[in-house]
Fold this protein.
Amino acid sequence: MRFDTDYIEGCHPAILKRLEETNLVKQQGYGLDEYCASARKRIKEACQAPHADIHFVTGGTQANVTVISHSLRPWEGVLCAVTGHINGHETGATEARGHKVLPLPEKDAKITAEQVEAYMKKYRAMDYPEHEIAPKMVYLSQPTEQGTLYSKAELEAFRRVCNAYDLFLFIDGARLGYALATPENDVTLPDLARLTDVFYIGGTKVGAMFGEAIVITNETIKPQFRYSIKQNEGMLAKGRFLGLQFDTLFTDHLYTTIAKHAIALAKKMHDEMTSYCISFFSSSPTNQIFPIFTKEQVEALEKKYVFERWATLEDGRIAIRFCTSWATEESDVATLLADIKALVK
């Protein structure tokens, strides 16, 4: 039984239905079809950002490297948490495009606006700043790699610092649907459109077969972005499949509705494990939870379940990650919880 990530299933049945219904409809290629146009319109309305540019690519790493390489000059770099996806999970894709990742210490996978400001003050005070990589972008994830969330107040603080030091603010939204569906979250799509220069809405992990929707609000980043998509090998000839999926996900609030299912099941898992006196590595309120077990308990669970070993603690215990998704079965969660209860009681 698998709880290792949130893209182990295919896609939401509503998407499969529309793929079948439109399969033989002839459309223009490269994202210039009527489904992409409709999806762009729906996303702009959801973001309350009529002047935003919307682009579709197939995956999160592709979205990250395309945005970063398009936005930065060759001598510029991007600040992020040391746990950030671009720093630890993308095989140096950002550096391979010629831009250095500048990692900052994190707490619960989050960095602060104060850290960015301190970094910029130190950089600006250098006698020869041109000898160093010039910070030009701040990269955040919502939710973070450990399922934690940035609040609206925190993002507003980042916006102020980015304005003060002429930095772009970019948010990786690979799991954004789960953030939006979390009761503790106070950041909306319109907030993201207002506070960032560019962000993307993840589909791959939130109901789509594949695909991410990049939302650009900064006028400096908008021009020739399609050139960068093509150069980064992201321009899908049958781009209709990307547009159609997001058109479906943004019809009747499907995107956040299906994400709520994952959040509810993750909360059930968290609450019941807490009642078993299990502690957690992260304070995540989203669809990723990080319980801590002994080595022997982890090995026992691995005989029946697939999950990720996340971190080994100083006392030898192991933090693991369980993920729920839009398609997780309630019965699977009940079975897992029963087995954990028997294991720890």
